[in-house]
Design brief:
Layout lengths: L4 H7 L2 E6 L3 E6 L8 E5 L3 E4 L12 E3 L6 E3 L4 E2 L7 E2 L2 H10 L6 H14 L8 H15 L8 H18 L13 H12 L9 H14 E5 L8 H10 L4 E6 L1 H6 L1 E2 L5 E6 L2 E6 L10 E2 L4 H4 L3 H12 L6 H16 L1
Parallel strand pairs: 11-14
Antiparallel strand pairs: 1-2, 3-13, 4-10, 5-6, 7-8, 9-10, 12-13
Length: 336
């Protein structure tokens, strides 16, 4: 996404604008055809799921925890310290260890979490989302990635991430400090486990991160070999469900594209990069929207969709589809 309107109009044909009702939104600056890619972004944070079963239900293939490339089982390179991360090569393992998976940082937290789960699975469930994803965010917030050598470097990395996370937060419930709240417990436990420095990152920063990830993390899917043709790829994306292999946080996409129950664009990814591709022709000045709901939720009735969006994102949907269904409902009631 290019945030400069003039450049966007020349290069892509979209611009980020502001409206009183919706805030930030993306509009077409010229007529765009179905299939046009209007945004391309790499993740600020990402995570490969630990379920490595292949598309056919076996474990012939794995996906690298750093680059998400598909690899055969016999070439897997495991993390030297924890029993979680797996890579496609020694190079990916080395880069992961210096970029974010430091032995004394999230690697240690992952290993501790896995051991606790083995002892008491019900009390210490170590799921990918939100547990591992939150820990990955906290490792960056607290300066435990391995990249930071001084307190000043840790503060700089933490400040950069906090800025993006705050822009991604949809809302933080009033009871977020309740001891019974799962995310609050996760925040507290992780900060204690990793020895959080209050001068670098405060408790509210962890809470903010937890809710930003909960509301705005996007699922990443496998890409079938040979899907280079855009038409074939669009057809598959619209009609065939793919294997979920991970999740990522994309700040620009998260805070720019608004929801519609009848969207004119969809997300698609190739490994770590996330694209927004039009699924209809779009007129000049028309807003480009995506759906925040999954395939099953999109097929439900208006009341159900609204409730899901209200719980997750704290807004009442008034898109064209919702208004049309409301009018149809009122007409039926009048006929009775």
């Amino acid at each position: 996404m290019i945030e400069n309107a003039a450049t966007a109009a020349d290069d892509i044909g979209v611009a980020i604008t502001l409206s009183e009702k919706k805030g930030r939104c993306v509009r077409a600056t010229k007529e765009l055809k179905r299939g046009t890619v209007v945004s391309d972004e790499a993740p600020l944070l990402w995570l490969k799921f630990t379920d490595d079963a292949g598309d056919d239900g076996n474990d012939e293939y794995y996906y690298c925890h750093r680059c998400l490339e598909k690899m055969r089982r016999e070439v897997v390179v495991e993390c030297e310290y924890c029993d979680v991360e797996k890579y496609c090569s020694v190079d990916c393992r080395r880069l992961a260890s210096v970029e974010y998976h430091c032995k004394t940082g999230e690697c240690f937290a992952f290993d501790t979490g896995r051991d606790a789960e083995k002892k008491d699975p019900e009390r210490y469930s170590f799921s990918d989302v939100p547990n591992r994803l939150a820990i990955r965010a906290y490792a960056k917030l607290g300066g435990w990635t391995g990249l930071e050598k001084t307190a000043e470097e840790k503060r700089r990395v933490s400040l950069h991430l906090r800025k993006h996370l705050k822009e991604c937060v949809a809302h933080v419930p009033k009871d977020h400090n309740d001891d019974s709240n799962f995310l609050s417990i996760l925040c507290s436990n992780t900060r204690t486990l990793m020895g959080a420095d209050e001068e670098i990152v405060k408790e509210e920063d962890f809470v903010c991160a937890a809710w930003a990830l909960r509301a705005n993390a996007h699922t990443l899917y496998d890409v079938d070999e040979g899907d280079n043709d855009a038409t074939v790829r669009r057809s598959r994306l619209e009609h065939k469900r793919r294997k979920k292999i991970g999740v990522g946080l994309f700040p620009t996409l998260s805070r720019s594209f608004n929801h519609s129950c009848e969207p004119n664009a969809i997300f698609e990814n190739v490994c770590l990069r996330l694209f927004v591709r039009l699924i209809t022709d779009v007129r000049r000045g028309e807003e480009i929207t995506i759906s925040y709901l999954n395939d099953d939720e999109k097929s439900k009735k208006r009341e159900y969709r609204r409730e899901m969006l209200r719980m997750q994102y704290n807004f009442d949907c008034d898109c064209v589809k919702c208004e049309r269904e409301e009018e149809e409902k009122e007409e039926k009631e009048e006929d009775l």
